[in-house]
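Archive entry. Fields below.
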Amino acid sequence: DLDMTSPAPSDTPESTGHKPAAAIAREVARRRTFGIISHPDAGKTTLTEKLLLFSGAIQLAGTVKARKSGRHATSDWMEIEKQRGISVASSVMQFEHRDHVINLLDTPGHQDFSEDTYRVLTAVDSALMVIDAAKGVEAQTIKLLAVCRMRDTPIVTFMNKLDRECRDPLELLDELESVLKIECAPVTWPIGMGKNFRGVYHLLRDEIMLFKAGDEKAEQAFEVVKGIDNPRLSAMFPLEIEQLKMEVELVHGASHRFDLERFLAGIQTPVFFGSAINNFGVREILSALVDWAPAPRARDATVRVVAPAEQPFSGFVFKIQANMDPAHRDRIAFLRVCSGRFERGMKVKHLRLGREIKVSSVVTFMASSREQVEEAFAGDIIGLPNHGNMQIGDSFSEGEMLQFTGIPYFAPDFFRSVRIRNPLKIKQLHKGLQQLGEEGAVQVFKPVQGGELVLGAVGVLQFEVVASRLLNEYGVDAVFEGTSISSARWVSGDDKRVLADFEAALGHNVAYDAAGNLAYLATSNVNLRLTEERWPKLVFHATREHA
Ligand code: G4P
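PREDICTED_STRUCTURE:
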């Protein structure tokens, strides 16, 4: 089943040895890979930290948070730093819980970095959505959820900050259902809120978990009282218990019962109420991930569907990040394993380049530090050192020509031309932009005629990030200026001659992106429409999938 091209003499039998199928299947079954999504400030960082704390991956809360620099952002620039703080440094975390291996992928909350988020969401099997219960559904939640829905990703919902005055829980569920168009199945139900927050009632277990303010040190046990009719409860807080009974009756009558199949199909979301900062409700989230969220699933690889427990290794790159850690100034390609067993030192085939590479230095992301990985299975994320030969969307295997699908690129909405103050730095500028383009930090277009590069972004903050990274990482002081370009489309066509004519005729507005794809840079919507009409044999795409 192997189609290895001429193994090098140093190749040892063990390095290509496969693990028995049953062992791989066992490893796959105990994996959970999920992304955490929220509108900024809903409590994503806090919850992430508590998940790590509960699983014993970190001892003290504050570890993740400390990285989220510039918390009290006062400028756009600080906002970027804040985004980078959390989403760069700790973008992938692996930890164990109840004999399960959990891979948590963070996503940037700021809309200007939504492209990055879309790509991350292609690498997960489920998502955890955090909502500020005082605010309800916010703008960024809607966008992120739309991406999950495109892929039918199962979603677990955490309503956070019940220790504050929140909106009415029934109203919150209503909003979720109507705005996000997803069925809600409450699993826990809050008893009071704010100063009168007493705890939550577990609708499936008929148990009440009493609230107590939590601390930052360790996981803690909350007292559990069995049965909503338990006289102890009425004695403790008679008012809230009466209210709870009424609400529970309403909830049972009016809302959906949790249904595992519907959750796995992405139609229904189980909803939990709690307070991340107080550790309250965090254990229930971990249980939902372990008990309900799916193990890695089969993936479309164009020529066929690849099952996670197949023996040969395969995977794809969904993100490239430079300079993750100032102590290691390198670039890392994040690869999601889709099948088989990855072993350090093994040879894998880089399918786009048709070249075999030996992967001897790989990192995994254990909670907060980077460690060498010895083996990895479907669902795991491994970091490969990238010396410029890997791009987002690249597939890897033990030889079979696979191409995993689904990594989207969106036509940019904002454009800048770029110029440098010191012409001697032109090489550094090109190198920097090429690398940032491959990372997906910005889209870089090189017009067929005319020397000036054009940058495209989905959000304008991306330009700030690029300017600052060019300066700090490549020593290039670049000037970004407005351009006449207002939209871009990728162009494809079957007839090579037509494509060549197109390039020759419209050279100043025809460009290649960092991955070598042909694009048309339009000066207005009218211009775009006219061009499309004049070149009927060409197809103009607003999105492209890595291919
Ligand atoms: P984010 O990653 O989604 O942007 O949110 P983050 O966890 O940073 O939380 C945003 C703010 O909400 C923080 O307060 C955090 O302490 C607070 N928070 C998180 N969970 C809860 C909760 O359960 N209850 C309450 N009352 N607050 C919560 P901050 O003042 O912005 O930051 P800090 O001063 O606490 O660091």
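CURATOR_NOTE: Residues 419 and 479 are 5 Å apart (CA to CA).
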